[in-house]
Design brief:
Bound molecules: adenosine monophosphate
Strand content: 5-15%
Largest sheet: 5 strands, parallel
CATH superfamily: P-loop containing nucleotide triphosphate hydrolases
Number of helices: 10
CATH class: Alpha Beta
CATH architecture: 3-Layer(aba) Sandwich
Shape: globular
Structural class: alpha/beta
Number of strands: 5
Order of helices and strands: EHEHHHEHEHHHHEH
């Protein structure tokens, strides 16, 4: 299986680039943020719980997120592979993902990390708020919080994959097409 972690801070372009990658490599896109938002819309218990964290720009607890991710992976019958978008966001999630993939005889091939500097992220998120309708994109205080959480809790996950020789940094500034090409060339080289 071609399993890729598409990594980066909020607003780095993970969702946009995921669409390109799933099309080219015939992968299943698993965005934990999207799954949480679908649960909020469906007014499930998981949605209610997730919302209380998401509204503040905090991470949903690891145990909840990991259980959800596992069941989403198992829903797919014979996938070519997965794009994990917005997961793992902590070292505990990364370790749980490895452990779980092992049980289905699989593993992560690459972590592709989109790098975009903070001011650009803030501009992009506020602009996206108009289209996404997401409350967590519209409020500068929540945006600050999400970026802080990324720097403190999520960015260290890069080291987890560096230690495994799977980390590749990708310049996330440029046209959408340019960035897609950067991703394709790294994947094609490794795959
Ligand atoms: P995203 O759509 O990836 O920007 O995620 C939106 C929000 O969902 C985040 O700010 C978190 O509150 C929550 N979330 C998404 N993925 C995770 C994860 N892997 N671990 C914990 N919380 C998450």
């Amino acid at each position: 299986m071609l399993n890729i972690v598409l990594f980066g801070p909020p607003g780095a372009g993970k969702g946009t680039q995921s669409e390109r990658l799933i099309e080219k490599y015939n992968l299943v896109h698993l965005s934990t943020g999207d799954i949480f938002r679908a649960n909020i819309k469906g007014e499930t218990e998981l949605g209610k719980l997730a919302k209380s964290f998401m509204d503040q720009g905090k991470l949903v607890p690891d145990s909840v997120t990991i259980d959800m991710l596992r069941s989403e992976v198992l829903k797919q019958s014979t996938p070519n592979g997965f794009i994990f978008d917005g997961f793992p966001r902590t070292n505990a999630q990364a370790a749980a993902l490895d452990e779980f993939l092992l049980t289905i005889d699989s593993s992560i091939l690459l972590m592709l990390a989109l790098e975009v500097e903070e001011n650009e992220l803030k501009t992009r998120l506020l602009k996206r708020a108009g289209v996404s309708g997401r409350a967590d994109d519209a409020d500068p205080v929540i945006i600050e919080n999400r970026i802080r959480v990324y720097n403190n809790e999520t960015a260290p996950v890069k080291d987890y994959y560096k230690q495994q020789g799977k980390f590749v940094s990708i310049d996330g500034i440029g046209t959408i097409d340019d960035i897609t090409q950067r991703l394709f060339s790294v994947i094609d080289e490794k795959n």
